[in-house]
């Protein structure tokens, strides 16, 4: 729900440029976060309902969910069909991938709101070991196929 075309539509911005790691995105990041927080304050399910509106396929992946209220909404609406997956990497790995901590952004709820309070069904470690990652993903996929 974080990458939502509603913010750029309402503010006359280039949606595609907001999806990359450009300075353009960084210029508007704080405004997007504030806008999203205000929408969630008035209606916690706003973005979740937007994501599922008109969806008919039997399986879908909602990636990049950021807040406990989002996870709770999906669990309330879809129950046991929901499987939560957290992908983790060490801070060292993230730095090797050019991540740099930015105060006020990386410690905001939009970035770390799920660091506590969620019992994830799956935790996948992605520290650069391709074989390990493939094995973890294969186990996850086998389990999901078994639920269909």
Automatic annotation (TrEMBL):
GO cellular component, one term: cytosol
Subcellular location(s) of the protein: Cytoplasm, Cytosol
Enzyme class: transferase
Principal subcellular localization: cytoplasm
SUPFAM superfamilies reported in the protein's UniProt record: P-loop containing nucleoside triphosphate hydrolases (SSF52540)
Gene3D superfamilies recorded: P-loop containing nucleotide triphosphate hydrolases
The keyword Repressor appears for this protein: no
Record keywords, A-Z: ATP-binding, Cholesterol biosynthesis, Cholesterol metabolism, Cytoplasm, Kinase, Lipid biosynthesis, Lipid metabolism, Nucleotide-binding, Steroid biosynthesis, Steroid metabolism, Sterol biosynthesis, Sterol metabolism, Transferase
A Pfam family the protein falls into: P-mevalo_kinase
EC number(s) reported in the record: 2.7.4.2
Recorded metabolic or biological pathway in which this protein acts: Isoprenoid biosynthesis; isopentenyl diphosphate biosynthesis via mevalonate pathway; isopentenyl diphosphate from (R)-mevalonate: step 2/3
Protein name, per record: Phosphomevalonate kinase
Organism field: Fregetta grallaria (White-bellied storm-petrel)
């Amino acid at each position: 729900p974080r990458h939502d075309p509603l913010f750029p539509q309402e503010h006359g911005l280039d949606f595609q440029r907001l999806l990359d790691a450009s300075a353009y995105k960084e210029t508007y990041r704080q405004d997007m976060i504030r806008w999203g927080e205000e929408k969630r304050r008035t209606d916690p399910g706003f973005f979740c309902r937007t994501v599922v509106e008109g969806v008919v396929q039997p399986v879908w992946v909602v990636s990049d969910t950021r807040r406990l209220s989002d996870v709770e909404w999906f669990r309330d609406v879809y129950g046991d069909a929901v499987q939560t997956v957290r992908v983790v990497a060490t801070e060292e790995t993230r730095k090797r991938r050019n991540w740099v901590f930015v105060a006020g952004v990386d410690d905001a709820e939009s970035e770390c709101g799920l660091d506590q309070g969620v019992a994830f069904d799956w935790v996948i470690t992605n520290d650069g070991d391709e074989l390990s990652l493939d094995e973890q993903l294969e186990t996850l996929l086998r389990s999901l196929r078994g639920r269909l």
